[in-house]
Design brief:
globular, seven-stranded mixed beta sheet, Aspartate Aminotransferase, domain 1, Aspartate Aminotransferase, domain 2, alpha/beta, binds D-malate
Amino acid sequence: MARINEHFLKLSAGYLFPEIARRVQGFAAAHPALAPRIIRCGIGDVTEPLPHATIKALHAAVDDLATHERFKGYGPATGHEFVRAAIAQGDFRSRGMDIADDEIFLSDGSKPDASAALEILGSGNRIAVPDPVYPVYVDTNVMAGNTGPALEGGRYQGLAYLPGTPGNGFVADPPTEAVDVAYLCFPNNPTGAVATRAQLEAWVAYAHRHGTILLFDAAYEAYVRDPAVPRSIYEIPGAREVAMEFRSFSKNGGFTGLRCGYTVCPKSLMGTTSTGDRVPLHRLWSRRWATCSNGVSWPVQCAAASLYTDEGQREVKALTDFYLANAALLRSAVQGLGLRCWGGTNAPYVWVECPEGLLSWQAFDLLLEKAQVVITPGAGFGSCGEGFFRISAFNSRANIHETCERLAVLAG
Ligand code: MLT
């Protein structure tokens, strides 16, 4: 009889965003007259069309596949050299970071990469996650057997939680205990908080002290406008020895439907065997890709490369400016109601403190039922998210204006 991976049975709830979609569908079915009014500011899914540079690249790549001369079959599993070179140059070397082309690994997005990273790490690692947290970091560790059972309140036994609170601006310091792996996400999902250079330096120093591997999720780096805020962990000296970084084209180029992202795995990043030998993770990550994937499709790789052209860069800036302007509108609407909020200045998410007396799923229900606005309840991101909710700025300008007005139901 085939056995299942019983770690999946420990998962205490469905994945957050399908759960929200299920509740919204239930509301729409029960109130068909209100269904067309629903505005979705829950999942961070882009609404604006792809850049023209990308559309042109996609058309040209499809035409390549229609000719014998330019046809492409299997490519290198980790991405075509010209794409990796454009990324390494455009995102890192042009900004003074020492990242080689062959340290870039193209994929279908940072969510699968964050999950796949666990395949090259051993079992028995002590794992630290932020709280509130992008649920993928927790759920994939549960699935991989890196936790004990679910505890009261939604946490899992065995994980080290790093609390984010108004007191620390939702940026946790390294823990006092030693952990083997720590997830960091800046600009942060869900709070929109950004880490200062000094805060990231403290994490890199901690990782060197304890042999910790940092899994740094920089999916939202294109939203950073403050030049003092680091956009990559590799801006911090010593990070090449301790960190892997995940990047996404979903939120800068609008690729949520096209699917492409990449991981940076420096050759100087080492892990330890049970006998204490130090082994470069790059070797394992390359081997994992060669065996488990044939990489990203030719049209999508060409689309990714288009984002590094002058035209593509201008269009990414315009797209991210557009969503940041939405975030600014949401912030001022929330503040106008006398509610405290974080994020939304170097990030596309606004993190709002619930009106007094409301739990986060109650705020979700109130906004859905009375205003037909979908937000993400903070409790879905962990126990420290209780009492807060996230509004996504990924929407049309008209919907954001409408949302700003409808948020008035929070005022009572
Ligand atoms: C979010 O809304 O947190 C993200 O869009 C979800 C994701 O990227 O998986």
